[in-house]
Amino acid sequence: MSDNKDSNPKPKAAANQQPAQAAVLEPKRTSVGRETSRIDGPLKVTGKAVYTSDHNFPGMLYAVPVGATISNGKVTKLETAEAEKMPGVHAIYHRGNIGELFRVAPDSTYTAYSDEPRPPLADDTIRYYGQYVAVAVADTFEQAKAAADAVKVTYQEEKPNVSPKLTADTEVTVESHRGDPQKAFDSASIKLDETYTTPSETHNVIELHATVAVFDGTKFTMYETTQGVVNHKNVLVQVLGVAPENLQVISKFLGSGFGSKITPWSHCALAGAAARNLKRPVKLVISRKMSFQTVGHRPRTQQRVRLSAQPDGKLTSLQHDYLSHVSLLDDYKENCGECTSYLYSTPNLKVTSALSRRNVGTPTSMRGPGAVPGLFATESAMDELSIKLKMDPVKLRIINEPAIDEGLNLPFASRHLIGCYKQGADLFGWDQRDPRIGSMKKNGLTLGWGTAGASWIAERFPAEVSVLLRNDGTVRVASATQDIGTGTYTVFAQVVGDKLGIPIEKVEVVLGDSSLPAGPMSGGSMGIASIIPAVSKAIERAVDTLLTAATKTPNSKFSGTKKAELTVTNGQVHKKDQLSKDGVPFERILKEANLNNISGKGTSPGTFSGKKQTSVHSYGVHFVEVTWQEEIARLRVSRVVTVIDAGKIMNPKTGRNQIEGAIVMGLGMALFEGTDYEPTKGAPINSSLADYLVAVNADMPKMDVHFLEVPNTELNEYGARGIGEIGLAGVAAAIANAVHHATGIRVRNLPIRIEDLLGETT
Length: 762
Ligand code: MOS
What we know:
This protein is α+β, with helices and mostly antiparallel strands. It is about 25% helix and about 25% strand. It has 15 helices and 27 strands. The strands form six sheets. A seven-stranded mixed β-sheet has the order 3-5-1-12-9-10-11, sandwiched between helices. Strands 7-15-14-13-8 form a five-stranded mixed β-sheet, with helices on both faces. Strand 16 and strand 17 (about 445-455) form a beta hairpin. Helix 11 packs parallel to helix 12. The longest helix has 26 residues, at about 525-550. The chain is globular. The two termini are about 35 Å apart. The model is unreliable at about 1-20 (pLDDT under 50). Bound molecules: dioxothiomolybdenum(VI) ion (MOS). Dioxothiomolybdenum(VI) ion binds near residues 259 and 367.
């Protein structure tokens, strides 16, 4: 068992080197690790936070796209004359008159990345429902909408393929392979061979995707809804064909993204082109319906899982063969096998994948892409195996806990999955579980108890950060990253506050502007882990300059002192052998030196390139209770206990909030969510918040979230990894497992519907 085994190099005590001066130990001011409310909270609750579509400019026009009403075929005629004559209309743009829009070059580094590299209106072929064929621009939104509706499109229509039954249309890729799983499977007496499916899911961000494009004849200023201002800029520079210095992307606040705002979508190009052509600011906000069609979705998956085990529970083989659907032109793959190769110990394993082409818009990342649907399959299968073995599902996990990452053949940097299971089981009261189906009752309801594990990547994007120490005692920190609502502004302030020992009220955080030093995407739960080392370095540089200034300013307290004898604690410059209260506030050093500010820049590399020495991931466990009322077929999720192993939690308040939100989303995934494609036209048919069901307040279970805080400094000095996505991984499986325990019905196709529970027990 590898529990509590951290391979971090510990700081070595300098045995032979005597430090010049012994450091004086004193309490340092910090808000890192403390419950800290969002610093942008007051702006949001008072309506002062300016979101993309809140931007208005003199002379601004409104654009409304026209989407195809077929999903396979060709545009044979586009009639715009009537629409052009309508009141307030400035233009109806289409393939013939929009001007040049370019393709996005292939990119695997997420610096100029697009899931849909084809520019809008590039040809007359329709490959998915809602694909833009024109865009109407008018003085008001209502006029633009009326004109868009008046554009007449004639199609040559073919039968679309939106079939939910997936078959491989691309070559099958072997993602991980060890031993001979088929042989082990064939010779095993205890085995399982089941197929699990997860539906297409739509992100349903509350803030609709929007662009406000401003063009001054040379330069574009694009107000965007994006999880990556730098990537967004680098993509639009290509699509619009302008020099990088002539396009700026601004995204100060976001009403969530869940992955749908990681890459720019074709409406951004339509707004940019319209602004360029008309030399007027253009606002384009897509409709809720369009957000089911043109801004990505989590693709449908179909996953065959084969497991075999010895009677003692030891896994002898694991095979995970999965398919995900994809659009006709793009290659987005739902990476369902992400966790499969390292989650359990088994000598024989194979993971394969392939894509299934469909007439749908390109799929994209959705919270926990890959791992989330993948773990639904593998963690459901583990539960099924535990039943075959007549073994407690937690015990089955403990028996199969690997000592190393057997997929990469590397030690784990920090893995405490068993610790999560133990703590979660304790908090939940798992030892009271009676494994017999439907045997547990409470207040006339049948209880079902289920569990599942979770894992998620832990990586870093490259990041660049600048800081300014100012002579009024405030500090400005800036980076071209953004806060999708997770609390990024706040954690920046906490890190700066910690490094300098100043209250976070003194820190101004500037994000959401591509003209700032290039910061990370808010994706892959990597934002905070990525920025910490860069903030640290920026502050180190600024402090170095500050200390030089302190020693060189005549009449300053430290004039003539050696720089090496000085440090900064609690916002005070002081001698290392003295307490900070005997020092001088940093701002006074600046004032004495007649400096307005001192700057520092810090960069840190990403972790994607180069050979890995360890396997770095986050882990977690969910314990779920459902209640089942058989007489009226009512299923509720009543209680969830979650324990997350994601290293140091920088802000437990926003952190817990992330996990709770993810649990609720997992409940939606398990019981409600799914985009249905109507087979004759290929339209996502339940394309509204009335018809696409998500979990609401009334569905909330009692949630109890715990962090197993074991810092591991592989990614940064605090030992923090990401927490945006891991909370969703495993939830749907834990619920399905609990449902089986209550009802005896194993649902392998999400979402679990009441109809599923009226059938035969399985
Ligand atoms: Mo996340 S799907 O990387 O926004």
